[in-house]
Amino acid sequence: NRWVPYLALGKFYYDQKNFIRGEQFLNDGLKIDPQNKDLLYHLAEVYGNSGPPDKALIYLKKILAAHPEEIAAQYRLGLIFSQDNKLVDAIHSFKSVIEKDPRHTGALFNLALIYEKTGDSIQAKHVYDNILEIDSEYAEVYVRLGCLYLKEANYVKAKECFVNTLTLNKYPAESHLALSKIFLSMNDLEGCVKSCNELLKYLSLTRNVVIDCVTDLSNLYVKIGTHFKKQKVETLANYSFEIADILRSLTPKKNVV
Fold it and tell me: How many CB atoms neighbour CB 180 within 10 A?
């Protein structure tokens, strides 16, 4: 175990932000034990967090060359490929992880994200469904699935996904906004009002008007969007303003609630 002091010193200097000195000790340890997983993993982590990703890839590949069964290295490799937009390599890495561990939800989720990115919604939904069979409380999967179904105008399925997310007490703002749009698409203004009320409650915003027409409801979504904009949550702000615009385009109807 002559490599142990080199790992300890490498970690020490890395924690002290002296990356050059830390790298030197870790590499000196590899001269003693070139296939040591601890040293290789730490070097990969060092470069993954604070150095060129290409160097992290080098050490991860060295781990896999010496220890092909290492799922953690294969998964980390896939994440780096995905971040670098090397999607073919990322898919290969995540599939390799899944072959070794079919219940690895991290690899499955990231694989589904790539399928989404490349426009393959059928494959993405298939993988998301597989994840839910493994973990029925994976809230982010319900959000992703709900968004896919919403794009496809499958409002029943989309609604089911976002209701499940709320049942898990996760992503309340995203879910209530999505449900607002779903209810509008289903011509269910009462449902939209309920979602608006839940959003106002969640955001601690007051509803200081009685909703007599869709214009009143539209103004409340402008209020919600303005709140998100002040919080610099641009995606949710824009989504709120989009709902407000949809409502504004409708013919005013009295006695919504």
Answer: 29
